[in-house]
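Quarterly update from the structural biology core.
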Amino acid sequence: MTRSSVLKRILFFLFALFYVTACSPPNEEAQEPTKIKVVKPEVKNPDTFVFEDYGTVRTLDPACSYDNISHQRIMNIYEPLIAFDGSATDAFVPVLAEEVPSTENGGISDGGKTYTFKIRKGVTFHEGGELTPEDVAYSFKRHMVVDQDGGPMWMLLEALVGETSTREKGGTLKPGIFEKIDASISVSGDTVILTLPRPFPPLLALLAYSNCGAILDKEWTVENGGWDGTLENAAAYNNPAFGSEPLHHIANGTGAYAMLKWEPSKAFIFERFDGYWGERPALKTAIFRYNKEWSSRKLALQNGDADRVQVDTQYLPEVQSMKGVVVHAVPQLSVAAALFCRQVNPEANPNIGSGKLDGEGIPPDFFADIHVRRAFLHAFDRDTYAKDVWNDRVVMPTSPNASGMPYTIRVPVYNFNLEKAKEEMKKAWGGELWEKGFKMVITHNTGNAQREAAAHMLAENIMSLSPKFQIEVRNVDWKDYTVAYRKYKYPIFIIGWGADYPDPDNFLFTFMSSQGVYGKFMAYENEMVDRLCKEGRFEVDPEKRRVIYARLQNLWYEEAIGCMVYQKIDNFVYRDNVKGFIPHPMLDAAWEDLKRLSK
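Predicted structure, tokenized:
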């Protein structure tokens, strides 16, 4: 079966099984006799779109952003060479490229190891520069040179260089890595050529979705402290500290919208770019407001003060019957899990108390003991969680390989059983844990009610095992949360993952490999797992891939790596005068494609 047919089956499965959308009201004007004048209701602020959410932006630097909130801002300001065609995951349309490369048009050659993009002319950046092929080549190189720890550029590095990082495990630069990056991308006339060490089938999907594909103005980036484009100085721009990225709070793309203002944890305002090369968008302004209180978001939606608000599933019944509101329920290639860090950073860390197994805290390697992990897994009541938190409008995954992906299997789970949880705790740390007890903190990102509920369920059920077990649940703003787990500050971090490209490699590598974005920050290392992840990524025989990915999914259970919490169905809730929404299984509820919208 071809990759294209597999992806089409994925999309068909998802939408046939889950997709529900409310229909727009009929066009009243078309229903009336032509002699009767129909007065349409007045649209509040017709050229302004307001969205209220509880997510916060971490960075605007495309090379470093790896969260859905920052991704939305970045990919409405910057543009890629190609984009997904509507709701498809395996069909694309040109954006800054004049056409989508294929074997038929000669854009993909050498057995899938060479991709040639012809760059569009007449495109202007927000700050006035003109797009050139050199800008495109520089952007890809700069993304990989920066390669921030825990960032998204492992994918582009793997595809173009054959490495998942520019650095060795200890943090030192790999010899010759920048020369490899430079050699992988070249300019010839009005084209940019990407040369791969071996075929990487998800490349087009990766460039269409991820920040890896965002194109920068080279001159402007250099002027604002970005990499100067020379190999000699590349090391100085590698792995910048969180918050100190050169493009952290500034942006200059070619998109239909530019950033007008960003007040962290308050509001992000877009304004229409009148010099946009494409079709002029309908909206002049878009305002994304931070609002963590559901009652306040609900009132804003009801009164028309917000055109769209974030609605978690438990609140869905409150808006389904609301007048003037339309709900689109979109299944996502996205999973969330509570992940156990096996080596927590103890430095000034309030989440582990005393940092010792003395009843007043936990040691940094608390979760290195499999009995502790199994106890927490037995303490998660999957059935009650799905019913009470999601109203059963959710998929409860058994491994990180999202339902609807190729090679997904149902693997065993640690069923809810507090007696078994108690037995595991008595075995943990040679019996010393049960005798002394412990104190720790479980965190979740502010405003996410589903993750908060999971955190409280784990905490309350574990504490019910013994009065010596004390767990505090805390919330942390998203922009700070994504930094802290990368600094190994959380013994448990609850976090989600949406597909960068629709392939099991993107999920199982991420959660299980020692080089994966989450595997790494769980301090999880297993040589067999790393080997299987690598083999699965490049194996072309579907049956061999099936065997590899089945083994990895079973190892998720056997190793008790983490607790799968949910695979979500996102609710996109709008006032019914907002038009232009297109559902996509890789674009979650934080996403909004502003140039498509109108009121």
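The mean pLDDT is 92.
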